[in-house]
């Protein structure tokens, strides 16, 4: 599986290369800025990309902009954002076309290598993988809190949905029945004004689509 990385921190990018190589990935290129990332994607046509939000020269949002542009030029390009920051304004846009896998993980919250490589493979396969902290910040971005009406259990279910977990996994994680999970999901979508669906990828996209329209 070919990977292109956009990361200006040399220690981190080299560490990612060693880690991924050991796990059977092929790191085709490492770019330190947005133009380099665009060129690497065009040349190598990777199976998945890893992008930091903040890249030179301003270290603001060049990375996520580069990811959005790359997906426009290469529809369906899988992108896993790996950053210390949640770029609220553009995270929803990154997944708004609904084509190709998308992930958004926070560096400080990745606790196990296996979780990271699993997330990368899922994004490459077309899934959506979101850190619960990311979805939480997106949900409160618009000056009101649309999840205020959710019960604590419904918030737990929503957080696991945001990670791309299916109903069976949520059931096992929370030690409740799948019927209870299904009911909680229905309540979440009803309270957020969304039509219920049981597709893991579309569920996260539906939440982000809701956010992008408010």
Account of the 3D structure:
- With 214 residues, the chain is of the alpha/beta class.
- It contains ten helices and six strands.
- α1 links the parallel β1 and β2.
Determine Rg (CA atoms, Å): 17 Å
The low-confidence runs, each spanning 5 or more residues with pLDDT under 50, are: none
Main sheet specs: 6 strands, parallel
Cα distance spanning the termini: 38 Å
Mean pLDDT: 85
Order of helices and strands: EHEHEHEHEHEHHHHH
Q: β content, as a range?
A: 5-15%
Helix tally equals 10
Q: Would you report the number of β strands?
A: 6
- What structural class should be given to the helix and strand makeup? alpha/beta
Give the neighbour order of strands across the main sheet: 2-1-3-4-5-6
Annotation keywords:
52% helix; 214 residues; 6 strands; six-stranded parallel beta sheet; 13% strand; alpha/beta
Write the layout of secondary structure elements.
Elements: E1 2-6, H1 10-22, E2 26-31, H2 34-44, E3 48-51, H3 62-73, E4 79-83, H4 88-95, E5 102-106, H5 113-124, E6 128-130, H6 132-139, H7 152-162, H8 167-174, H9 178-192, H10 200-212
Parallel strand pairs: 1-2, 1-3, 3-4, 4-5, 5-6
Helix pairs in contact: 2-3, 3-4, 6-7, 7-9, 8-9
């Amino acid at each position: 599986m070919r990977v292109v990385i956009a990361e200006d921190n040399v220690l981190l990018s080299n560490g990612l290369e060693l880690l991924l190589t050991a796990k059977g990935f092929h790191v085709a290129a490492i770019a330190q800025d947005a133009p380099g990332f665009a060129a690497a994607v065009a040349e190598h046509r990777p199976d998945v990309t890893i992008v930091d939000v903040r890249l030179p020269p301003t270290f603001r949002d060049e990375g996520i902009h580069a990811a959005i542009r790359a997906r426009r030029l290469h529809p369906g390009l899988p992108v896993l954002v790996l950053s210390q920051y949640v770029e609220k304004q553009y995270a929803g846009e990154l997944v708004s076309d609904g084509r190709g896998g998308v992930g958004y993980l926070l560096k400080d919250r990745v606790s196990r290598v296996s979780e990271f490589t699993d997330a990368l493979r899922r994004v490459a396969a077309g899934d959506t993988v979101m850190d619960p902290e990311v979805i939480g910040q997106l949900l409160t971005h618009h000056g009101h809190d649309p999840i205020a009406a959710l019960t604590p259990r419904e918030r737990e279910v929503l957080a696991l949905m945001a990670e791309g977990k299916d109903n069976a996994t949520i059931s096992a994680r929370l030690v409740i029945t799948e019927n209870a999970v299904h009911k909680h999901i229905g309540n979440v979508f009803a309270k957020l004004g969304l039509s219920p669906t049981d597709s893991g990828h579309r569920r996260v996209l539906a939440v982000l689509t809701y956010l992008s329209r408010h």
